[in-house]
Amino acid sequence: MPSEEEIYQEHILDHYEDPFHNGPLLDATHAHHDKNPLCGDVVRIALKLDPAGKIEDCAFEGDGCVISQASASMLLEALCGKTVDEVKAFTAEDMLKLYGPRLTPNRQKCCLLSWRVIQQAVYSPVER
Amino acid sequence: MPSEEEIYQEHILDHYEDPFHNGPLLDATHAHHDKNPLCGDVVRIALKLDPAGKIEDCAFEGDGCVISQASASMLLEALCGKTVDEVKAFTAEDMLKLYGPRLTPNRQKCCLLSWRVIQQAVYSPVER
Amino acid sequence: MVPLTDFLLDASLRDDFPLLAQDVHPGQPLVFLDNAASSQRPRQVIDAIVHCYEHDYANVHRGIHVLSERSTDAYELARRKTQAFLAAEHAHEVIFTAGTTAGINTVARSWGDANVHAGDELLLTPMEHHSNLVPWFQLAERTGAVIRHMPMSDDGVLQLDRLDEVLTERTKLVAFTAVSNTLGTINPVEALCRRARAVGAVSLVDAAQSAPHLTTNVQQMGCDFLVFSGHKLCGPSGVGVLYGRETLLETMPPFLGGGSMINRVYDDRFTPADLPAKFEAGTPPIAGAIGLGAALDYLTAIGLERIAAHEHTLVERAWSGLSQIAGIRLLGPAPGGSDDPCRAGLVSFVLDRPHAHDIAQLLDRRGIAVRAGHHCTQPLHDRMGIAASTRASFYLYNTPAEVDLLIAALGEVRERFRPTGRRRRGRIDA
Amino acid sequence: MVPLTDFLLDASLRDDFPLLAQDVHPGQPLVFLDNAASSQRPRQVIDAIVHCYEHDYANVHRGIHVLSERSTDAYELARRKTQAFLAAEHAHEVIFTAGTTAGINTVARSWGDANVHAGDELLLTPMEHHSNLVPWFQLAERTGAVIRHMPMSDDGVLQLDRLDEVLTERTKLVAFTAVSNTLGTINPVEALCRRARAVGAVSLVDAAQSAPHLTTNVQQMGCDFLVFSGHKLCGPSGVGVLYGRETLLETMPPFLGGGSMINRVYDDRFTPADLPAKFEAGTPPIAGAIGLGAALDYLTAIGLERIAAHEHTLVERAWSGLSQIAGIRLLGPAPGGSDDPCRAGLVSFVLDRPHAHDIAQLLDRRGIAVRAGHHCTQPLHDRMGIAASTRASFYLYNTPAEVDLLIAALGEVRERFRPTGRRRRGRIDA
Ligand SMILES: Cc1ncc(COP(=O)(O)O)c(C=O)c1O
Ligand SMILES: Cc1ncc(COP(=O)(O)O)c(C=O)c1O
Question: What is the ipTM of this complex?
Answer without folding.
Answer: 0.94
